[in-house]
């Protein structure tokens, strides 16, 4: 039961729509930076460098950075 609740909370935090009682997840939040031109499931080292460069350009705290990805990407 706790595992199912944790997965639901994680999903809402990432993909939540912001309606019907759901929080607005990271993917649906205006202003969250993205990097285009990357093929899901086929991420390359060059793609990861694009992500990192974008974060540094936006003055993100890269020391506290974390990645959200599927096991296939990892």
Any overview of this molecule?
The chain has 74 residues and is mainly α. The protein is 36% helix and 0% strand. It has helices at 2-15, 45-57.
Please name the defining characteristics of this protein.
74 residues, mainly alpha, 2 helices, 0% strand, globular
What's the SSE blueprint?
Blueprint lengths: L1 H14 L29 H13 L17
What global shape is seen?
Answer: globular
Radius of gyration: 14 Å
Tally of individual helices: 2
> How many strands, which pairing sense, and closed or not: the largest β-sheet?
none
Strand content: under 5%
- Please state the structural category: mainly alpha
| Element order: H for helix, E for strand | HH
Low-confidence stretches are none
Report how far apart the termini are: 27 Å
- Estimated helix fraction: 25-40%
Number of strands: 0
Mean pLDDT: 82
Short description:
With 74 residues, the protein is mostly helical.
């Amino acid at each position: 039961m706790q595992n199912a609740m944790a997965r639901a909370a994680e999903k809402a935090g990432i993909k939540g729509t912001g309606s019907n009682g759901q929080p607005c997840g990271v993917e649906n939040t205006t202003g969250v930076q993205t990097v285009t031109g990357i093929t899901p499931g086929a991420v390359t080292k060059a793609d990861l460098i694009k992500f990192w460069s974008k974060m540094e350009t936006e003055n993100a705290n890269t020391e506290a950075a974390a990645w959200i990805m599927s096991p296939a990407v990892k």
